[in-house]
Amino acid sequence: MRSDPKGSRNSGPVPAGKPAGAGPLASSGSAGGGKQGPEAAADLVRARKQLLDGGGTRNRRLDAHALRQALVDLHEFWLTTKAAELGIRSDSGFAVVAVGGLARREMLPYSDLDLILLHDDVDPKRVSEVADQLWYPLWDAHIKLDHSVRTVPQALQVAGSDLTAALGMLEARHIVGDEDLSNLLIGGVRREWRTGIRTRFDELVAQTRSRWSRSGEIAHRAEPDLKNGRGGLRDVQLLDALAIAQLTDAMPGLGPEVPGGGLEQSHRRLLDVRTELHRVAGRARDQLRAQDADEIGAALRIGDRFDLARTLSDSARTVSYSVDVGLRTAAAAIPRRGFSRLRRVPVRRPLDEGVVEHGGEVVLARDARPKKDPGLILRVAAASAQTEMPMSATTLNRLSEGAPELREPWPKEALNDLLVLLDTGKSAAAVIEALDRTGLWGRLLPEWGAIRDLPPRDAVHTWTVDRHLVETVAYASGFTTRVARPDILVLAALLHDIGKGRGGDHSVVGADLAVQIGNRLGLWPSDVALLSSIVRYHLLLPETATRRDLEDPLTVQTVVDALDGDTMLLELLHALAEADSLATGPGVWGDWKSSLIGELVRRCRLVMAGEPLPQPDPIDPDHIARAANGGVYVELQPEGGQHTYIVTVIAPDEPGLLSDAAGVLAMNSLRVLSASVGSHAGSAINTFVVSPKFGTPPAAGLIRQELIRAIAGDLDLIALLDKKEKDAIAAAPVRVGDEGVPTTAFAQAPPKIIWFDATEDGEVIVELRAEDRVGLLCRLARVLELAGADVRWAKVSTLGSVVVDSFCLALRDGDSSANRERIEAGILGVVPMIRPPKPAEEQTT
Question: How far is it, in rounded angstroms, from Cα 672 to Cα 662?
Fold first, then answer.
């Protein structure tokens, strides 16, 4: 007999289990007489067998739900009949209380029968007599029984000392006998649970996470544990326990209108699958074996084992999201005592336009208008991923109910917010999962529905197809500085398998879908073509490198011809191949595969033309004419998007102007999305495309006044930017490590510096690929100025969270390796670096 989660290790006069060799106890004094021993439960056994064999009628098989209800009715009927024979009535001082599946009305074919015999301090001899005559017929009939005999105070004591027992008794339901006695137990357990949850909540969370660690995630297990796995039936019972404690709703965050039908539908599906698992296995079983999946899928009219796996993944992920919301909501609602009651109410800290942090969650600002702001969904998501704070369930519900569709093509700021989300690496996974479970991700990417919860056909894959794409994005975010187009890399990572689940070659189907999606996102036609080509050829490098002879020139020429000699496409495919392999599963990417693909790429580069040099943007003739007037001129105009503007700065071309202009913009919370820096006839002509973090930008006149102050040396911009950044980082400590409040940001991908020889004598071009930070362009320009480099022109791009900045430099002391090393050291001193790993002793704690 299994250990009893409800504390039913039989205290009192009843033995812990049936003694070996003991026969039924016949008692002439038993109330009601009747059958004894095996005969007493024979009718129950026959009826159970009849239900499992055919549902009780000829050629009719009960479905899973009807079978569970029939089993509940059957066991309740037997117990009430037997109780009447034993004299267990409303005034007898006895009550039979069900826990477990019978209490929840979820009786499975081979579930244990979990019962508590309550008594009101009845004579021990009488208690023993009644208990023996109730338990022994069930034992002798080989019905699995989990039992206990207790008074109400004894049961409450067990619930108060054993968390597992308390969780079991929270489900208790009166079956027969003295109902007042049952109500004393049920009400007492629930009352003590509510009053004691503050001290038991941490233990409850720890127990839950330990169970998840042992049993894994149902959504991503080949043979999942339907009961104990993450997203399983135990988690639904956990939500009920939190609801009884009045900390959360029993079904938080999801309604029936979301993908998968919400929590109630997911619970029903898990129960149905577990019911059929019992019926197919012929015994109690929690783990779904691969060999049983086809039969269970057919019995439930779901389909084959892959269809069943998809259904389970959908249901389990819905339950997992609901539990995350429930635990978070419960933690915030835990009653406070002592000095903790005097804590100040959490403040609302602004994160983005219409987005704030409140109580450790990302929520909407009070003046946010979801029905009039279609880009709000992505701003909320980007803020959540950047700060690693979860989005409030209430916020997601409001967005789901009221946020309109983004117009097509998307505004630039919406695309940028999507890129920021994807650039956050592992943080993006939880955000996308929350958006997907609430129907918002499918609104942004309708094509996602075909791959949602789609199980892999190859056993080497760890994840469902949709989660694999998200994992690929997470790995690709660490490679963004390897490539010239980090934005296209993360988008390709997100879409490379989007063609699966539709029939045909998924690379070909996906390439067409990439065109459709790229046009919707508002990419330039050339970028749409590049994105489509990456999706079309994302398997070209790994398949060629591992299956073809690299010494054969025809092998290399085949790849070059397929890619039309495009070195940028080759570079992106190389990075994607590694991210895709790492996201597939353990051991898929290793030294052997890495070296083969690297060698193939090297040989292809030798055949292809070299990479083109960065080129300056042409200068607007109107700006040239304006420069002739002299002085400091600042113009601010809408760029075309809802939150983007063009700032033009024309001033005498003097050292430090670029740093001062970029610093003033950063101090006014204007993020530089792109910039073109040039000069003409002694005047610098700098154009910045900016996006304000909040509201509208300051007037051009105010920007001009601050720029004049900065040029005059009245503003220490670097110090002001350091303080601004430190304040922002300190307000979001989760994002920056565990060692106090740091003073700098960390990056997902390491910075990369590339040098080119320019066409003019004495000029060189340095290109930086790095993650952005507050005032980065200002800091870079200051580094170049201090190194004695004159910026002849510059071309700046911010793609999501990654910058690709090119500067054409005239080096005062000539182009030497020492000068380049000095400039590189200065650049590396101001860009975000990879977070250092924790010491080994901290990783193991």
Answer: 8
Q: What is the CA radius of gyration of the chain?
A: 34
> CA 586, CA 794: separation in Å to the nearest integer?
43
Residue 615: other Cβ atoms inside 10 A? 11
Per DSSP, the three-state class of 683 is strand
pLDDT at 725: 87
Closest Cα partner for 749 from 535, 489, 528?
489
Distance CA 780, CA 789 (A): 11
685-686-688 Cα angle (round to 5): 155
Residue located via tokens 């507050």? 774
Task: Give the residue carrying structure tokens 């269970």.
Answer: 296
What pLDDT, on the 0 to 100 scale, is given for residue 546? 95
- Provide the pLDDT for residue 260: 61
Burial of 742 (0-12, 13-18, 19+ CB in 10 A): middle
Which residue's structure tokens are 């030798």? Answer: 606
Q: Supply the DSSP string of 738-795, one letter for each residue.
A: SSS--SS-EESS--EEEEEE-SSTTEEEEEEEEE--TTHHHHHHHHHHHTTEEEEEEE
730 pLDDT band, cuts 50/70/90, is low
Q: What is the DSSP letter of 227?
A: T
Task: Measure the CA–CA gap between 559 and 575, rounded to whole angstroms.
Answer: 16
Query: Quick check: helix, strand or coil at residue 282?
Result: coil
* CA–CA–CA angle 733, 734, 736 (5° rounding): 70
Give yes or no for a contact between 701 and 709, defined as CB atoms under 8 angstroms apart.
Answer: no
pLDDT exceeds cutoff 90 at 35? no
pTM of the model: 0.89
Angle between helices 179-215 and 305-333 (to 10 degrees): 110
Please report the beta strands in 30-189, taking only residues with DSSP state E, as ranges in sequence order.
94-98, 113-119, 145-150, 173-177
For 652-672, write each residue's pLDDT tens digit. Answer: 999 999 999 999 999 999 999
CATH topology of domain 37-198: Tetracycline Repressor; domain 2 (1.10.357)
- Which token pair is 265? 């539908």
Cβ neighbours, 10 Å, residue 23: 12
Sign of torsion over alpha carbons 358, 359, 360, 362: negative
d(CA 343, CA 712): 46
CA-to-CA distance for 466 and 220, rounded, in angstroms? Answer: 11
Which helix (H) or strand (E) segment is 363 a member of? strand 361-364
First-last CA distance in the chain = 37
Residue 219 to residue 500: CA distance in whole angstroms: 18
Q: Compute the distance between CA of residue 537 and CA of residue 526 in angstroms, rounded to an integer.
A: 17
CA pair distance 223, 216, nearest whole angstrom? 10
Beta-strand relationship, 173-177 and 348-352 = unpaired
Structural contact between residues 257 and 265, judged by C-beta atoms closer than 8 angstroms: no
- In the DSSP assignment, the letter for residue 225 is B
Kindly state the greatest CA–CA separation across the chain: 118
Q: Which residue has the tokens 């029936």?
A: 256
Looking at residue 733, what DSSP letter applies? G
Q: What is the secondary structure of 326-393 as a DSSP string?
A: HHHHHHHHPPP-GGGGGPPPPPEEEEETTEEEETTEEEE-TT--GGG-TTHHHHHHHHHHHHT-PBPH
- Distance (Å, rounded) from C-alpha 565 to C-alpha 559? 9
In 19-172 the beta strands, taken as DSSP E runs, fall at 94-98, 113-119, 145-150
Tokens of 246: 């009045």
Phi, psi at residue 713, to the nearest 5°? 85, 15
Return the SS3 of 95: strand
Query: Does the bond joining 409 to the residue before it have cis omega, within 30 degrees of 0?
Result: yes
CA angle 638, 643, 644 (to 5 degrees): 50
**Phi, psi (deg, nearest 5) at residue 328:** -65, -45
Instruction: Pick left, alpha or beta for residue 800 (phi over 0 → left; psi -120 to 50 → alpha; otherwise beta).
Output: left
Chain-centre distance for alpha carbon 106 = 30
Name residue, tokens 């290109």: 767
Domain spans in the chain, listed from the N-terminal domain onward: 37-198, 221-237+246-338, 345-444, 485-612, 626-735+742-834
